[in-house]
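Re: Re: token formats

Sure, here are both.
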Amino acid sequence: MTTQSESDITNTFVPQRLDTRAPLNELLSSRRSPRAFSERQIEPSKIVALFEAARWSPSSANEQPWHFVAATKEDTRIYNALVESLMEGNRRWAQRAPMLVLGVAQSVYLKIGRAYQHAWYDLGQSVANLTVQASALGLAVHQMGGFDAGKAREFLSIPDGYEPVIVFAVGYAERPETLPDDLRKREEGPRSRKPLEVMVFTEEWGKPSRLVEVQNSMTSDPASRN
């Protein structure tokens, strides 16, 4: 007989790896931001590991400006407040995820009282660490800028000096067939990114850097097309 946990694992959606121009670690090449989440609960030890990964991120002057308001569906009031803060387009699918998290950045260096210009950047690094750790644990993360920061501040009593920046859903990815048709089509569409030539410069702005020219030896490597 198949146990519930075995069934959950069997039904977990595993995305295809990217077609990259150079070999990447599979944790990066297989990462995706799904909208389809299983209702399977996240193991408590994995939740701790996610926030440990965030905790050990680098930051300016080691200020560590990141803070998180996290809720599973067992935390009914906070989970519902996070759902309510989302824009309708995100709320449609995110309310199925087993955990929602609000990322908050402090706006002032606590040590010196000066404006913390890089706080959002540092928060982003911590969430990136968390996201890679999630991939390592078989979990997926979908980050959302589409939320009402004012509502989040009000509902969750975020004090002055701290800025709600991002909400993200965490859980086990489900197959796209579970989504409404319009979201399913977006879920099944190919992932794409701008080419390196439009983002990496050396000699002058807008001129592609020689450092990202693709060598024949690299493009001929089968691993680069995984």
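Second one below.
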Amino acid sequence: MIRGSALSSTARGLLLALLSVLFLVPAAEGQTRFMHLTDQTVAPAFEGWWPNDDGTYTLFMGYMNSNWEQEFDIPVGPDNYFTFTEAAGLDDLEREAYDASSADQGQPTHFYPRRNPFLFTIRVPGDFGSTELVWTLNTRGMTLRAFASLAPDYRIDPQVISTEVGGNFGSLSDALRTNIPPELEIQGDDHVSIGVGQALTVVAKAHDPDNLPARRNRGGPPSTLAQLYRPPSSIVVLSGPGMRLSWIVYRGNAEQVTFSPTQMKTWTDSRVWGNSPWSPPWIIPEPPEDGRWVAEATFTEPGNYVLRAVASDGSMFTYKDLMVTVTPISDLDQGK
């Protein structure tokens, strides 16, 4: 017990040490980062908007799955829907606003790990005004929302997109403001049927019309562990420039779909050698000489799937979808 206002030097030293611990521990905890493999939620994201020449506007959407491994399948419905509302109309997360007439705006129903930026777009009319288009996602019992609007500070351009995805190794070049996204087409029908266990050949043709940003590497693969595991030098993960294309499962259970060859990830896996454009040492495979990416998809369960071809020059993205109906082999054999 200490009496009076005077403290001995020993007591003062102990008190200062205790106060230092009390103040430093919260600061240290505030800087702690954890890698969660599972058991976290998915947050929808509004990436921004830009005007179109015809007077309409394009809204860019994506999401953040806080897990590094766990994926989710959330069909369009009360746990995955869009709502048109007045400004701030759905700020109350406990307010349910599911309306089947507006729920489906082309959003994914399969959610890969981590950040999936600028994954889809929604075009809204010129009189959209102060309306908000709200994306509601419910995972693990938690409701999260993204509020898309024409707020001036959310207006973007191709350079902003490149910066947000770490394109061209994080370059801020003004030339990226006029970057043209890849041109992409899926060869063949846009809706096909296949039997369970049968290989479906999918072909996408893509090229970069302006070769911007130009393909380049960062001096080749690292030669030392220090180079390989060096700490990040920017607040966003970096991606190398260069034309690439991958197929993903956009709707349907991805666990039931196998691609051959294995597709480069389209989500920001920043772990070393993670088969991702954001993975050190950022080696982007050379595109096919004829610009045709050919793969096989095999399904182990019947149902309706949407496969998405994602083409990117490292800074901008273009998407095309292929609808696939997978039928039990017995039904195909009987001509049903």
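The longest helix spans residues 9-31. Helices lie at 9-31, 100-103, 158-164, 167-170, 225-228, 329-333.
- S.
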